[in-house]
Structure formats: structure tokens, C-alpha cells
Design brief:
Number of strands: 31
CATH architecture of the domain at 173-342: 3-Layer(aba) Sandwich
CATH class of the domain at 173-342: Alpha Beta
CATH superfamily of the domain at 173-342: P-loop containing nucleotide triphosphate hydrolases
Oligomer: single chain
CATH topology of the domain at 173-342: Rossmann fold
Strand content: 15-25%
Radius of gyration: 31 Å
Structural class: alpha/beta
Distance between the termini: 41 Å
Shape: globular
């Protein structure tokens, strides 16, 4: 894990050398040398923690490197604060001189200017000299740590295999075992078992792969075992084999174990001396003409099956392969012919049934135990492994002790079963360092919290977890998010416009993230209601406050080097802004992330004028009725500004010169007052802006704007889509008509070649027949419009790339809709809020890939059977 921290700091040093080159010109060589030393040291960290986890010397050595890495970041951040303070002091001197009258322009002002200039140069020299000394001290510390490796015999920790720690040996053994032992009576997954059994027994002669994927502990191996041991399977397949792959696999070893499995454990001695090629040829020859079934369990890399499949002939007789994996990419890329099955979490009743089988084998259930049991089962979130371990644990406890388990459920589960922590930790350990930090950041969020993915991405970017390269950082962050989802470490929440709008983390994985973040001294959590603080170390770099009237009192004891402060008002009991904000800007000057959520929008308070002291601030989000000082315009590094005001009439808005924030990438809020946003070339997101701002803006200067939410209410009759057509990068567009009668023509949007998601709120007399021409690339469309008389389906079904469509409540009040053959060729999700619909004619071939239909209940409306099977609840 520490290698993730060191790699992150090395990247930050490089960013400073590139982005702040002018300030580091006097010490560039020293910073580059420090960066190289850290890179070199990081080479020895890669496997040290894992292989020597029980060695106190290694733990201390790793901890020392982590602390030095943090110190490196602190030194450079502090240097930049001093440089900016000197610049401000210099500007004050200049400002005073600029206000002088003509009579004072002479020798005295010239002398003052000369003194100020020489004084400034002197301060710069002192600052550079001081940081040079601090860097030299850090390099000496690294040298001492390096010498300790030799003194204590730690120089070969990366390659040393002899005498590995018991913990590492246990972990290796765990990787080679099944991820979830077989159960004779498998609870749940009845439909899944039937579906997959049908795939295994169908008449398709070609060999193909069935990939079962899902998070660790979900029961993939159990389900595969149930299929493998089914009597119909045993009768159909003349030979079968099972092999567990794990992360550290060897192809030759796998082939040997498969041969052994096919031969029921009787392997001639000659096979022990075979090369990998010989084993492949032997297996391929022995399987000729056989109808075989092979289970390749716990696959972590797509290359694993690719390295084996040459040995398995396609006999065109119905042979099958089952692969289980935690990683979606492995499941999807296993073979050209693959059936992919994502294993779901157990539902409430299935979870309770599984729990009862384990927990109540020694005593009878009563009302009190059932209430406690159901409460704990719900916390398991449908994860079978957690439910099995919990039930088995409680079966050994007296009923009086169940309350104690409930109060500390995850600690009890970890102590009772090595599988609970270690199996989930396998997924974390397999992550590259960038994804490790992104996953650990999730520990900031409260339990069962629905995390807005847009917000999460902005936070990752602000924290510096996303690399600066050719790609846009937000796109890279999206890829990171999808990778964590595909690796079963994050669960999808709400899907918006074909994208993941919210996500959540299973409580066990959140507990794992908190544990790992605590080991790195990365995050501190304060929760007054639960009377808990997951880390009491004052040197933590990130603080999350969940609730309590004294929630912000812990700031008095916090590390002044705090980088991130997230305050969640979960119960509406947090103190007001005035109780902590005035001292925030002087005490925590290293902050990069500041978020304050307050449920009471009636507060009349202000951000402090010295907010500009937070020169490192990149992310600022607040809710409530705030007055914003003009000094906010001095936050030159600010990238995300999310401001949500109350409805108070005297509540101030942003300063109109918001364009001075040149680094701003995301501006989100209720932006009612006219703003100047010209020349904001880095702006990507502009949400809830009015046309009184938009009509005075030259859109051609917003070259990177990708998402726009625009309300048209002031310029009646003047709004057209011509201005939006000049946004060459626009991807997501929401336009709401408030005091305007009808939408103008959509034809100008045909120039927006990257427009993928469109929302229209207002009135529209009729849909243009050329809508598929105007919007050829739109993938999701929400029409929250009114007064359409004609059936919209004949026009909308021609939009060939449309995958998601929603028609609002008053969009169409007609009695009949028709979807013609070949209509909506790619539509996957359709949402209809129409109550008056009496007849829906769907021709053969229409809606061929629809997998979700949400609509109002219609007592008389008859749907084809294939549409009934995809009905989803309308929320």
C-alpha cells in the first residue's frame, strides 16, 4: 500500500516541476534528485509489505518511507504558500504606490519601489535557501532509511522467498484455494442455476465459455460447483475437470492439475517431466472426440484461459467451459463465444433463509432473536460469505450475546473468519497504485451512503489521484470508476443517461478501505453519534465529519497539514459556519478539498474574506445561504466550485468576474445573477445558468464545455439553439423553458457532433420529422415537454443510436402509440409516464434489444409477453 503513497508523491513532485517551473528554478536539481531517490526506494516497496507482513523491522522501515514521502509533499506545498504570501505582500506595495497622487511621483516613490524590489528578491532567496536545506534533510533521511536495509539484512526483500512470513504463506495458500467452499444445499440463485444449466445442456455443438463474475464471497465457486455436480451434467459429459487459478498462476502447473483432474487424480510419473508444450499436446489428444466440461475457477487475468484453451479441442459435440472471476473484463474477453452471467447479491428473503440455516441449528428462533438477526442480515447486504460467517458465529453464541455482535458486527466477522478480510483484500492487493488510492478515498463516505459519481470524480481529480497526460483527467477518472466497478469493488447505483449516476460500497469493503487507509494514516473519521473515530492520529491528511453538534470541535486537534475536509450533515445537527470557518483559512492552509453540507438553508452567513489564503484549494463545495467575498477570485488553483444557496432574497451570488478563475473546470450552482464567463477555456461543466448570462457570452470561447444546464426565462422569444451549436465539445445538454412559450427549431444542434445526452423541459408543438437527422449521435433523450398531439414514436424510432428514452408525464396525451418494424434498433431502456394510453401497437422486429421498460400501470393496456418480462418499477 505504501508504494501507492510514494508513487503519488513522486507524481506530485513531477507536477510541481512542470506546472510551477518558474518558482522552482533555483532548486530544480534538488527536487529532481529527491524525486529519483523516492522512485528508487519505491522499487523495494512493491512486495515488502505483503511478503514480510509479520516482520516488525519491515513494518517500521515501510512506515519510515511513508512518513518521508508525506514530508516531501509538505515541504513543497509550504514553499508555494510562502511564495504566494510574498507575491501578495509585493502586490500590496505596488497597490499603495499606484494610488499615489501625481505630486508624489518623484524620487521617493522610485526609492520605495527599488527597496520593495530588492526586499522581495531577498525574501525569495531566503525562501529558496530554506527549502533547499529542507530537501537536503529529507535526502539524508532517505539515505539513513536505505542504510537500515543493509544493517538489518533487508536488502533482498523483493526476491527473498526463504523464510517468508506465516501471514504471507497463509495468503498464498488462500489464493490457491477455492474462494468459497461448496455447500450441499445452496440457498438462492434458483433462476440463475436453471438458466446456466440450460446453457450447459443445450444443443449448440460448438464449444463455448460460460463466465460467472461478481464480487468476492458472492458464491461464484459455489454456483459453479452446484452445476458441476448436477446429475444431468454428470450424465451428459463423459469427462470433467476442475482447476483453481488464483492470481499467482503457472500455466504448466495448471495443465498438470487439469490432466490429474481428468484422470481422477491418477497421474503417471512421466507427466511430471513433461514440458508445457508436451502437456498441451497430450491433453489435446486425449480429449479428441470427448464431450468434456472444465471449470476454470478464480481467474484474475484474461491471459490465464488464453494460455490454456489451445489444449482444449472444439469437438463440435457440445463441450463447455465455466470460468469464475471477480473482474468483468476477464469475463467478457474469455472467448469469442461466451455467455456472461453477472451474479447478483441475495435478496432479503434469500439472505434470511441462508442465515437461518446457519444460525438456528442449536436453538429455536424467538421474536427478539429474529429482530436482531434480520437487522444484522440486512447489514450483510446480500453477500453470502458474510451471511454464512455471521450465522455460523451466532450459532455458537448465547442469545444474550447477540447484541454485542450486532454493535461490532464487522470486527466480530473479521475475528471469526480469515476469509472475510483476506478474500476481499485479494481484490484490493491486485489493484495498480492509482486505483488503490481511489478505492481508499471511498473510506471518507458514511456507511450506506449513495455517492454521486460526478462528485467523486471531481474529488479524485482535486486530490491529484488522476495523472496529467494527453487524456482529459475526468475521462481517466471515469475509466478508474468503471474499473473499480468491473473489479467488483464498487456497486452501481442509479443509472442516468446510460452512465453510472451514483455508486455505493458494500459495508465489508468499506470496512476494508477504512482499515487500509488507517494503516497508511490517510483518513480520519469523526462520528459523534456513533462515538467513533476510525483514526485518532493527529497527523492524518484527510478528515471526514459525519454528525454531531460538536462535530467541528475535533478540528482544534487536527493536523494543520490537513489536505481534505469533508463535512456531512447526516442528522441536521452540525454547528453553523461561523463556529469554525473564521479560523479555517488561517489554520488549514494546505487544504485542497473543502466541502460543507448543511441541511439548514436558512442560515445567513458568509465565507471569510481571507478564503484566498487557501492557495492550494482545488475543490470547494458548500450548501446554505452564503455571501461570497470577491477574494474567492484569487483562488487560482480552484477547479471545482459547487455552490448551493437558499432562497433568501438578500443572499449574494458569485462575483460577476468569475472568469478570473482561469483553472475552473466545473461551475455548479443556482446561478441566477448574470456572470461573465467568457474566456473560461478550461470550463467543462456549467450547471443551472440562466439566459441572462448565456446571451451575453461568446460560446466559441468555451472550447472545453462538455455539459450545460440552461434555463431560459428572461429573454422571451430571443433564445435559439444557434449559440449552443457553437459549442464544439458539448456532450450533455439540458435546456429548460420557464417563461418562454415553445422551443425553437432543433436544427442547429446538428452541428454538435459529440452531443450524446439531451434533456428538454418546456413546451413543444410537435417533434420535427428530421429529429434523427438533427440529433444523429444522441444516445439518451428525456423529453419532459407538453402539448404533443401526434404520436412521437414514428419520429423517435428513427434515431438509430438512441439507447435510453424517457417521455415525461404531459409529453403525449394520446390514446394510441405505434412502434413499427425495425424501429428503435438500439433502445435498451424506455420510460413512459403516459396515463391515458389505451393501445400500444408493437410490430414484429421493433425494440429488438429492449431490456428495461418503466411505465405507469394501465389496467386495459395489453403488452406482448416479451415486454412484460422486462418491466421495471417506475420511480
Amino acid at each position: 500500500m505504501v508504494d501507492a503513497v510514494v508513487s503519488y508523491v513522486v507524481k506530485r513532485l513531477g507536477d510541481y516541476l512542470i506546472q510551477e517551473a518558474a518558482f522552482f528554478r533555483g532548486i530544480r536539481s534538488e527536487v529532481e534528485s529527491l524525486q529519483k531517490d523516492l522512485e528508487w526506494m519505491n522499487c523495494f516497496l512493491k512486495d515488502a509489505e505483503e511478503k514480510q507482513v509479520d516482520n516488525p523491522l519491515i513494518r517500521q522501515w515501510v512506515s519510515d518511507i511513508r512518513d518521508i514521502a508525506f514530508d516531501c509533499e509538505d515541504v513543497l506545498d509550504e514553499f508555494m504558500i510562502k511564495v504566494r504570501d510574498e507575491e501578495i505582500a509585493s502586490d500590496i506595495v505596488k497597490g499603495g504606490e499606484g494610488q499615489s497622487s501625481k505630486r508624489k511621483r518623484g524620487l521617493l516613490p522610485t526609492f520605495k519601489k527599488s527597496v520593495a524590489k530588492s526586499s522581495r528578491k531577498g525574501k525569495e532567496k531566503v525562501t529558496v535557501y530554506n527549502i533547499g536545506k529542507e530537501i537536503e534533510t529529507l535526502k539524508k533521511k532517505l539515505s539513513v532509511v536505505s542504510q537500515r536495509r543493509q544493517e538489518y539484512g533487508l536488502e533482498n526483500i523483493n526476491v527473498k522467498r526463504e523464510g517468508e512470513s506465516p501471514a504471507f504463506c497463509r495468503l498464498k495458500q488462500l489464493r490457491k484455494t477455492n474462494s468459497f467452499s461448496f455447500e450441499e444445499n445452496v440457498v438462492g440463485y434458483k433462476d440463475e442455476t436453471g438458466e446456466l444449466l440450460g446453457k450447459l445442456l443445450d444443443d449448440e455443438p460448438r464449444r463455448y465459455v460460460i463466465s460467472i463474475w461478481g464480487t468476492g464471497g458472492l458464491g461464484k465457486t459455489t454456483l459453479a460447483g452446484k452445476l458441476y455436480n448436477n446429475s444431468a451434467i454428470i450424465q451428459k459429459f463423459s469427462c470433467s475437470a476442475w482447476v483453481s487459478v488464483s492470481q499467482d498462476y503457472n500455466t504448466q502447473d495448471l495443465l498438470g492439475r487439469i490432466i490429474k483432474s481428468f484422470n481422477s487424480g491418477n497421474t503417471p510419473e512421466k507427466f511430471e517431466r513433461m514440458s508445457q508444450d508436451d502437456m498441451e499436446r497430450h491433453l489435446h489428444k486425449s480429449l479428441q472426440g470427448c464431450r468434456y466440461l472444465v471449470v476454470v475457477d478464480d481467474v484474475w487475468h484474461k491471459e490465464a484461459w488464453a494460455s490454456l484453451k489451445r489444449a482444449f479441442p472444439d469437438n463440435k459435440n457440445g463441450s463447455r467451459v465455466i470460468i469464475t472471476t471477480r473482474i468483468k473484463d476477464v469475463a467478457e474477453r474469455s472467448d469469442q463465444r461466451t455467455h456472461i452471467h453477472e451474479l447478483r447479491f441475495l435478496n432479503q428473503e434469500e439472505s434470511w433463509q441462508l442465515f437461518c440455516e446457519k444460525a438456528f441449528c442449536n436453538f429455536n428462533i424467538d421474536e427478539g432473536l429474529e429482530k436482531l438477526g434480520r437487522e444484522m442480515v440486512e447489514k450483510c447486504g446480500g453477500l453470502p460469505l458474510a451471511i454464512v460467517v455471521l450465522g455460523s458465529l451466532l450459532s455458537t453464541k448465547k442469545p444474550q450475546a447477540w447484541n454485542l455482535v450486532r454493535d461490532n458486527i464487522w470486527r466480530h466477522l473479521r475475528n471469526d473468519s480469515i476469509q472475510i478480510t483476506q478474500l476481499l483484500a485479494l481484490s484490493f492487493n491486485d489493484l495498480p497504485y492509482q486505483l488503490k488510492l481511489c478505492f481508499l478515498y471511498l473510506s471518507n463516505f458514511p456507511e450506506d451512503f449513495e455517492i454521486n459519481t460526478e462528485k467523486l470524480i471531481h474529488l479524485w481529480v482535486a486530490e491529484g489521484y488522476i495523472p496529467h497526460d494527453e487524456e482529459i483527467m475526468e475521462d481517466v477518472a471515469h475509466n478508474y470508476l468503471n474499473e473499480l466497478i468491473n473489479r467488483s469493488l464498487i456497486q452501481k447505483g442509479e443509472i442516468r443517461f446510460g452512465m453510472v449516476g451514483t455508486c455505493r460500497v458494500h459495508d465489508l469493503l468499506r470496512d476494508l478501505a477504512i482499515q487500509k487507509a488507517k494503516e497508511l494514516n490517510l483518513v480520519q473519521i469523526y462520528d459523534e453519534i456513533r462515538n467513533s473515530a476510525h483514526s485518532s492520529k493527529v497527523s492524518c491528511r484527510r478528515l471526514a465529519i459525519y454528525s454531531g453538534k460538536n462535530g467541528t470541535s475535533c478540528l482544534q486537534h487536527c493536523n494543520p497539514l490537513l489536505r481534505s475536509l469533508l463535512i456531512f450533515d447526516l442528522c441536521g445537527e452540525l454547528p453553523t459556519y461561523e463556529q469554525f470557518i473564521p479560523t479555517l483559512c488561517t489554520r488549514f492552509r494546505f487544504l485542497r478539498v473543502l466541502e460543507f453540507e448543511h441541511r439548514s438553508l436558512s442560515q445567513r452567513c458568509s465565507l471569510p474574506k481571507d478564503i484566498d489564503k487557501l492557495i492550494h484549494l482545488k475543490y470547494l463545495r458548500f450548501e446554505g445561504a452564503l455571501k461570497i467575498p470577491k477574494s474567492i477570485l484569487n483562488l487560482s488553483n480552484l477547479e471545482t466550485l459547487h455552490c448551493h444557496w437558499g432562497l433568501l432574497p438578500d443572499c449574494n451570488s458569485l462575483p460577476t468576474e468569475i472568469w478570473k478563475l482561469k483553472s475552473l473546470r466545473h461551475l455548479i450552482g443556482r446561478l441566477v445573477v448574470p456572470l461573465r464567463i467568457d474566456n473560461m477555456t478550461n470550463l467543462q461543466t456549467l450547471k443551472n445558468v440562466r439566459d441572462n448570462t448565456w446571451t451575453k457570452t461568446n460560446p466559441e470561447t468555451l472550447v472545453n464545455l462538455r455539459e450545460l444546464h440552461l434555463s431560459v426565462c428572461y429573454e422571451r422569444g430571443k433564445f435559439t439553439f444557434d449559440s449552443i451549436a457553437k459549442l464544439k465539445s458539448i456532450q450533455i445538454l439540458t435546456v429548460s423553458l420557464l417563461n418562454v412559450q415553445f422551443f425553437p427549431t432543433l436544427q442547429p444542434l446538428s452541428h454538435c457532433r459529440y452531443l450524446r445526452h439531451l434533456i428538454l423541459n418546456g413546451k413543444m408543438e410537435k417533434l420535427p420529422g428530421e429529429m434523427h437527422v438533427f440529433l444523429p449521435n444522441v444516445e439518451s433523450l428525456l423529453l419532459n415537454i407538453s402539448q404533443l398531439v401526434d404520436d412521437p414514436m414514428p419520429i423517435l424510432e428513427k434515431m438509430l443510436n438512441l439507447t435510453e428514452l424517457e417521455l415525461g408525464r404531459f409529453c403525449y396525451s394520446g390514446k394510441k402509440m405505434v412502434c413499427t418494424a425495425k424501429g428503435f434498433p438500439r433502445l435498451e431502456i424506455l420510460t413512459l409516464h403516459t396515463k391515458d394510453l389505451e393501445e400500444w401497437q408493437i410490430e414484429e422486429g421493433a425494440l429488438p434489444v429492449l431490456r428495461g421498460l418503466k411505465m405507469e400501470k394501465h389496467s386495459q393496456l395489453k403488452l406482448p409477453e416479451r415486454l412484460k418480462s422486462v418491466l421495471l418499477p417506475l420511480r
